Structures are given as C-alpha cells and as structure tokens.
Amino acid sequence: MESKAFALWTGLFVIALLAALAAVVIWMSGVRQGERVEYTLLSRQSVSGLNREAAVQYRGIPVGKVVELGIDPADPKQVRVRVAVDSTVRLSAQAWARLGTQGLTGLTFVELHDDGGPPWRDPAGAPLPMRPSLWQDTTSKLPAALGEARQLGERLNLLLDDANRRELASLLANLNRFSAQLPALGEQSTATLASARQLADELRQLSQGLRAVLAQAGPAVGQASARLNQDTLPRLDQLASQAEHTAQALDGLIDSHTRRPQQLLLGAPMDPPGPGEAGFAGAAR
Fold it and tell me: Where does the secretion signal sit in this chain (predicted)?
C-alpha cells in the first residue's frame, strides 16, 4: 500500500515538474495570450523563400514571426501574409513591409518599416503594403539598364564605323599639317605686325609734321589750317589708331591660334551666358 502511494506521489511530482517547465518555456518564448498582435500584409510581388515561422524584424530587431501565408481572396494577384508582432511595437498609418535576406543563412524574413508617428495603426484595420525588396527592385530595373547599354553600344558602333574613322583620321592629319605650318605662319604674321606698327608710327610723325608746318604758315593759310586740323589730321590720327588696333588684334589672333590650333576646326569656345540669358548658371542658384 505504501509503495503504491509513493508511486502516485512520484508521478504527480513529475507531472507538476513538466507543467512548470512547459509554463517557463511558454513564458520565455513570448507567445502568451495578449503579448502579440497580428497584422495583415499584402504584396503584389513574389514572396518566394518566405515560410511560416519566418522571423519578423523591426529596425533590425526580431519582434515576431509569420503565422500565415496565402493568396488574397479579394484579389488573386496579391499574396496575403499574416504576422504576429510584439504588442510593444506600435505601427503608424505610414508603416510598410518588405522582404529581407539574412546574410550567412540566406533565410528570408519580413522587415517592418515605419516613416510616421501617432495616431497608431489598428491591427484589425487596413493591411500593410509590401514594397519590392532590394533584390526585386534591382532585378526589375535590370532590363531597362541592359536596354540602355545596348543602345549605347549601337551608337558607339555607328560613331566608330569605317566612314567615321576615315573622316576622323583625315581630320587629325589636317590638324597635324596645320600645326606644322604654324611656326612659318607666326613668322609671317610677326613681320606683318611690325610693318603695321611702323606704318602707324609714320602716320603719327606725318600728322605732327603737318601740324608744325601749318603753325608756321601764318594767317594766310589759317582757313586751310583749320580745315586740316578739323578734318584731315583727325582722320590721319584715326587711321593710325585703327592700324594699331588692327596690329593688336592680329597679334592676339596669332597668339590664340598658336596656343589652341583646334579653334580653326572647331571654332572658338563660346562665352558663358550672362545674367538674363538662357542657360545662365546663376539663375539655378
């Protein structure tokens, strides 16, 4: 009789111990009733790799798990995902989700993102939208990028075809020949410039000589002197100034083409647009 009572108490003790262990495990796992709330997610993208019991993270911290996966009865083109999230995590109306992948294991999980604040979302309210994952976003843009790269390759092929290559080679050959002629052209231009300056000096000397002669001629030639002073001599001065300006402009032109010979083929660079003109950089600021 005593042995039966001992066995009974032993069995009851083992059962109580197992129940206590189960309660501790349930408490530590955080699945007690009321500790988690469920949200519905809707996705128009594939959720390949996502399974039930997959982790749910918020700002990189595990906060729940996936409890249900299926097709949305209201729209067969959408995937319906139910997640259980810790009740301490409060989501706003701007909250959204997307799929993520763990680095080493490659397991797929749900990432929750929230860009807003109060008022907080009702878990039983509207579903959270799921946006494309980084991988899905990249792969969706890949065909367009490949198409642009193909167009770029085709344009490069057109630019570098046989006819264009021959024209480019001819252009470079002409540029080389012109560059070889620049020293001789510079010497000729220097001589021309010296002659123009000498002409300007002689015109000034002539003007000064005429002024002196008229000053010594006396009243008899006063009227002619006045006419010369008012008409002829100013024109001589103007002609001398124009000759000097022409010499300076020719000197600048020679110097510019000596430093940048490509201007003869491509033209001089355009001045940047000023205030009020189209393309003025200051307008953008």
Answer: none
Q: Which residues contact 160 (CB under 8 A, 6 or more apart)?
A: none
In 29-167 the beta strands, taken as DSSP E runs, fall at 36-43, 55-58, 61-71, 79-86, 96-101, 108-113, 128-129
- The whole-angstrom separation of Cα 276 and Cα 45 is 50
Q: Is the pTM above the cut of 0.70?
A: no
Burial class of residue 83, CB neighbours in 10 A (0-12, 13-18, 19+): buried
Task: Tally Cβ neighbours within 10 Å of residue 49.
Answer: 13
Residue 171 token pair: 């252009």
Rounded distance between C-alpha atoms, residue 170 and residue 176, angstroms: 10
Q: Tokens representing 249?
A: 């402009």
User: For the stretch 168-178, what's the b/e string if a residue is b when 16 or more beta carbons lie within 10 angstroms of its beta carbon?
Assistant: eeeeeeeeeee
Render each residue's pLDDT in the chain as its tens digit; 285 residues.
Answer: 556 666 777 777 778 888 888 776 666 655 444 588 999 999 999 898 899 999 999 988 999 999 999 999 999 999 999 999 999 998 998 999 999 998 788 899 999 999 887 888 888 888 999 998 877 777 777 788 888 888 888 888 877 777 877 888 888 888 888 777 777 776 777 777 777 778 778 778 877 777 777 666 655 556 666 666 667 667 777 777 777 777 777 777 666 666 666 555 555 566 667 676 666 665 444
Here the contacts of 256-263 (C-beta below 8 Å, separation 24 or greater) are: 257/182, 258/182, 258/186, 261/175, 261/178, 261/179, 261/182, 262/175
